[in-house]
Design goal:
The protein has 233 residues and is mainly alpha-helical. The protein has one domain. The protein is built from 14 helices and three strands. Strands 1-3-2 form a three-stranded mixed sheet. The longest helix is centred in the middle third of the chain and has 20 residues. About 12% of the residues have low confidence.
Length: 233
Amino acid sequence: MQDLTGPVLRKASPADFGRTPIYIVRAEPEVERFLSIGVCLRLECSNLAFTTPQLDRSLRPYLESRGRWEGRGFACVLDTDKIQAAPRTPPWLEAAIGMVIHEATHWLGYQDGANPATAGCEPGKYNGQHIDDLLRCPAWQAYYAKAPAAATGHGAPFIRAACHLWHRANAVYPLPITRCWIAGENYGLSRPETYAAALATELRATANTPIVNILRTRPPEAFAELWKRDCQR
Protein backbone atom coordinates (compact mmCIF):
# COMPACT_ATOMS: atom_id res chain seq x y z
CA MET A 1 0.00 0.00 0.00
CA GLN A 2 2.82 2.40 0.91
CA ASP A 3 4.57 1.64 -2.37
CA LEU A 4 1.42 2.29 -4.36
CA THR A 5 -0.05 5.43 -2.77
CA GLY A 6 2.95 7.22 -1.22
CA PRO A 7 4.70 7.94 -4.54
CA VAL A 8 1.55 9.61 -5.86
CA LEU A 9 1.78 12.21 -3.09
CA ARG A 10 5.50 12.75 -3.60
CA LYS A 11 5.19 13.19 -7.36
CA ALA A 12 2.02 15.26 -7.10
CA SER A 13 3.32 17.85 -4.65
CA PRO A 14 7.06 17.51 -3.96
CA ALA A 15 7.01 20.97 -2.36
CA ASP A 16 4.80 19.55 0.39
CA PHE A 17 5.72 15.86 0.51
CA GLY A 18 9.11 15.54 -1.23
CA ARG A 19 11.10 15.28 2.00
CA THR A 20 8.31 14.22 4.33
CA PRO A 21 8.17 10.64 5.64
CA ILE A 22 4.92 9.05 4.50
CA TYR A 23 3.40 6.17 6.45
CA ILE A 24 0.44 4.48 4.79
CA VAL A 25 -0.56 1.65 7.10
CA ARG A 26 -3.12 -1.08 6.54
CA ALA A 27 -5.67 -1.43 9.33
CA GLU A 28 -5.13 -4.68 11.21
CA PRO A 29 -5.33 -5.76 14.85
CA GLU A 30 -1.61 -5.25 15.46
CA VAL A 31 -1.88 -1.68 14.21
CA GLU A 32 -5.10 -0.88 16.03
CA ARG A 33 -3.71 -1.74 19.44
CA PHE A 34 -1.29 1.17 19.17
CA LEU A 35 -4.19 3.54 18.51
CA SER A 36 -5.81 3.00 21.89
CA ILE A 37 -2.79 3.74 24.10
CA GLY A 38 -2.96 7.18 25.72
CA VAL A 39 -4.00 8.94 22.54
CA CYS A 40 -6.91 11.30 22.01
CA LEU A 41 -8.11 10.17 18.60
CA ARG A 42 -9.41 13.21 16.78
CA LEU A 43 -10.95 11.41 13.86
CA GLU A 44 -11.57 13.40 10.70
CA CYS A 45 -13.46 11.01 8.49
CA SER A 46 -14.91 7.53 8.29
CA ASN A 47 -13.20 4.44 9.60
CA LEU A 48 -12.26 3.48 6.04
CA ALA A 49 -9.31 5.83 6.33
CA PHE A 50 -8.17 8.37 8.87
CA THR A 51 -5.36 10.51 10.16
CA THR A 52 -4.80 12.54 13.33
CA PRO A 53 -2.24 15.22 14.29
CA GLN A 54 -0.28 12.70 16.35
CA LEU A 55 -0.91 9.51 14.38
CA ASP A 56 2.72 9.13 13.32
CA ARG A 57 3.81 9.26 16.96
CA SER A 58 1.13 6.78 17.98
CA LEU A 59 2.30 4.35 15.32
CA ARG A 60 6.00 4.85 15.96
CA PRO A 61 6.48 1.59 17.95
CA TYR A 62 4.73 -0.35 15.20
CA LEU A 63 6.74 1.37 12.45
CA GLU A 64 10.03 0.92 14.31
CA SER A 65 9.35 -2.79 14.73
CA ARG A 66 9.22 -3.01 10.94
CA GLY A 67 12.16 -0.73 10.23
CA ARG A 68 9.93 1.92 8.70
CA TRP A 69 10.30 4.83 11.13
CA GLU A 70 12.06 7.80 9.49
CA GLY A 71 10.93 10.60 11.79
CA ARG A 72 7.81 12.75 12.05
CA GLY A 73 5.64 12.82 8.95
CA PHE A 74 2.25 12.12 7.44
CA ALA A 75 0.58 8.93 8.66
CA CYS A 76 -2.67 7.43 7.45
CA VAL A 77 -4.44 4.19 8.29
CA LEU A 78 -6.45 2.54 5.51
CA ASP A 79 -8.88 -0.29 6.06
CA THR A 80 -8.46 -1.95 2.68
CA ASP A 81 -10.85 -4.78 3.54
CA LYS A 82 -13.68 -2.33 4.25
CA ILE A 83 -12.79 -0.23 1.21
CA GLN A 84 -13.15 -3.25 -1.06
CA ALA A 85 -16.37 -4.36 0.64
CA ALA A 86 -18.03 -0.93 0.68
CA PRO A 87 -21.01 -0.49 -1.68
CA ARG A 88 -20.35 1.55 -4.80
CA THR A 89 -16.62 1.55 -4.12
CA PRO A 90 -14.56 2.14 -7.29
CA PRO A 91 -11.50 -0.03 -8.04
CA TRP A 92 -9.69 -0.38 -4.72
CA LEU A 93 -6.49 1.42 -5.75
CA GLU A 94 -8.41 4.40 -7.09
CA ALA A 95 -10.47 4.51 -3.89
CA ALA A 96 -7.36 4.19 -1.73
CA ILE A 97 -5.52 7.01 -3.52
CA GLY A 98 -8.57 9.24 -3.24
CA MET A 99 -8.80 8.61 0.49
CA VAL A 100 -5.07 9.19 0.97
CA ILE A 101 -5.41 12.53 -0.82
CA HIS A 102 -8.28 13.40 1.51
CA GLU A 103 -6.33 12.48 4.64
CA ALA A 104 -3.13 14.13 3.38
CA THR A 105 -5.12 17.34 3.02
CA HIS A 106 -5.96 17.19 6.73
CA TRP A 107 -2.25 16.77 7.44
CA LEU A 108 -1.47 19.86 5.36
CA GLY A 109 -3.95 21.73 7.53
CA TYR A 110 -2.02 20.72 10.62
CA GLN A 111 1.19 22.07 9.08
CA ASP A 112 -0.52 25.35 8.34
CA GLY A 113 -1.04 25.82 12.06
CA ALA A 114 -4.81 25.75 11.72
CA ASN A 115 -7.03 23.63 13.91
CA PRO A 116 -8.89 21.51 11.36
CA ALA A 117 -9.79 18.78 13.84
CA THR A 118 -13.17 18.37 15.34
CA ALA A 119 -14.78 20.42 18.04
CA GLY A 120 -16.73 18.21 20.39
CA CYS A 121 -13.87 15.75 20.86
CA GLU A 122 -12.13 17.32 23.85
CA PRO A 123 -8.53 16.35 24.64
CA GLY A 124 -8.52 13.26 26.79
CA LYS A 125 -12.21 12.53 26.41
CA TYR A 126 -11.63 9.41 24.35
CA ASN A 127 -8.25 8.39 25.73
CA GLY A 128 -7.84 4.65 25.64
CA GLN A 129 -10.86 3.99 23.44
CA HIS A 130 -10.68 1.78 20.40
CA ILE A 131 -11.40 3.49 17.09
CA ASP A 132 -14.56 1.49 16.46
CA ASP A 133 -15.81 2.28 19.98
CA LEU A 134 -15.40 5.97 19.25
CA LEU A 135 -17.21 5.72 15.93
CA ARG A 136 -20.10 3.87 17.60
CA CYS A 137 -20.38 6.51 20.34
CA PRO A 138 -23.94 7.98 20.00
CA ALA A 139 -22.78 11.45 21.01
CA TRP A 140 -20.07 11.43 18.34
CA GLN A 141 -22.43 10.10 15.67
CA ALA A 142 -25.07 12.70 16.50
CA TYR A 143 -22.50 15.49 16.43
CA TYR A 144 -20.93 14.40 13.17
CA ALA A 145 -24.31 13.97 11.47
CA LYS A 146 -25.45 17.49 12.36
CA ALA A 147 -22.22 19.48 12.30
CA PRO A 148 -21.54 21.75 9.33
CA ALA A 149 -18.57 20.92 7.13
CA ALA A 150 -16.49 23.69 8.67
CA ALA A 151 -16.93 22.28 12.18
CA THR A 152 -15.73 18.84 11.15
CA GLY A 153 -12.58 20.07 9.46
CA HIS A 154 -13.99 19.94 5.91
CA GLY A 155 -14.69 23.63 5.37
CA ALA A 156 -13.36 26.15 2.86
CA PRO A 157 -9.62 25.82 3.69
CA PHE A 158 -9.86 22.03 3.47
CA ILE A 159 -11.76 22.12 0.18
CA ARG A 160 -9.30 24.57 -1.32
CA ALA A 161 -6.25 22.55 -0.27
CA ALA A 162 -7.86 19.26 -1.34
CA CYS A 163 -8.67 20.65 -4.79
CA HIS A 164 -5.02 21.65 -5.20
CA LEU A 165 -3.71 18.26 -4.08
CA TRP A 166 -6.22 16.41 -6.26
CA HIS A 167 -5.37 18.61 -9.29
CA ARG A 168 -1.67 17.77 -8.91
CA ALA A 169 -2.25 14.09 -8.18
CA ASN A 170 -4.55 13.81 -11.17
CA ALA A 171 -1.55 14.42 -13.44
CA VAL A 172 0.21 11.44 -11.83
CA TYR A 173 -2.70 9.05 -11.41
CA PRO A 174 -5.91 10.26 -13.11
CA LEU A 175 -8.98 9.88 -10.93
CA PRO A 176 -12.27 11.74 -10.51
CA ILE A 177 -12.27 14.41 -7.83
CA THR A 178 -15.30 12.71 -6.29
CA ARG A 179 -13.02 9.87 -5.13
CA CYS A 180 -11.42 12.31 -2.68
CA TRP A 181 -14.62 13.01 -0.72
CA ILE A 182 -14.34 16.78 -1.10
CA ALA A 183 -17.50 18.84 -0.53
CA GLY A 184 -20.62 17.48 -2.26
CA GLU A 185 -23.93 16.32 -0.88
CA ASN A 186 -22.34 14.34 1.97
CA TYR A 187 -21.38 17.70 3.47
CA GLY A 188 -24.43 19.65 2.32
CA LEU A 189 -22.28 21.57 -0.15
CA SER A 190 -21.94 22.10 -3.89
CA ARG A 191 -20.26 19.38 -5.92
CA PRO A 192 -16.47 19.17 -5.73
CA GLU A 193 -16.23 19.77 -9.48
CA THR A 194 -17.93 23.13 -8.92
CA TYR A 195 -15.39 24.13 -6.29
CA ALA A 196 -12.51 22.98 -8.49
CA ALA A 197 -13.89 25.08 -11.36
CA ALA A 198 -14.01 28.12 -9.08
CA LEU A 199 -10.32 27.57 -8.36
CA ALA A 200 -9.30 26.71 -11.93
CA THR A 201 -7.03 29.70 -12.54
CA GLU A 202 -5.35 29.37 -9.16
CA LEU A 203 -4.84 25.62 -9.62
CA ARG A 204 -2.94 26.20 -12.86
CA ALA A 205 -0.98 29.25 -11.73
CA THR A 206 0.29 27.80 -8.43
CA ALA A 207 0.96 24.19 -9.38
CA ASN A 208 4.51 24.34 -7.98
CA THR A 209 3.75 26.39 -4.88
CA PRO A 210 3.57 24.64 -1.50
CA ILE A 211 -0.08 24.18 -0.69
CA VAL A 212 0.45 25.36 2.88
CA ASN A 213 1.63 28.69 1.43
CA ILE A 214 -1.42 28.94 -0.81
CA LEU A 215 -3.67 28.52 2.21
CA ARG A 216 -2.17 31.66 3.72
CA THR A 217 -3.37 33.78 0.78
CA ARG A 218 -6.80 35.14 0.03
CA PRO A 219 -8.88 32.62 -1.98
CA PRO A 220 -10.28 33.56 -5.40
CA GLU A 221 -13.49 35.54 -5.23
CA ALA A 222 -15.47 32.91 -7.12
CA PHE A 223 -14.46 30.27 -4.59
CA ALA A 224 -15.26 32.50 -1.61
CA GLU A 225 -18.67 33.38 -3.04
CA LEU A 226 -19.49 29.72 -3.72
CA TRP A 227 -18.65 28.81 -0.13
CA LYS A 228 -20.72 31.75 1.14
CA ARG A 229 -23.76 30.67 -0.89
CA ASP A 230 -23.43 27.10 0.35
CA CYS A 231 -23.33 28.28 3.96
CA GLN A 232 -26.51 30.32 3.42
CA ARG A 233 -28.57 27.41 2.13
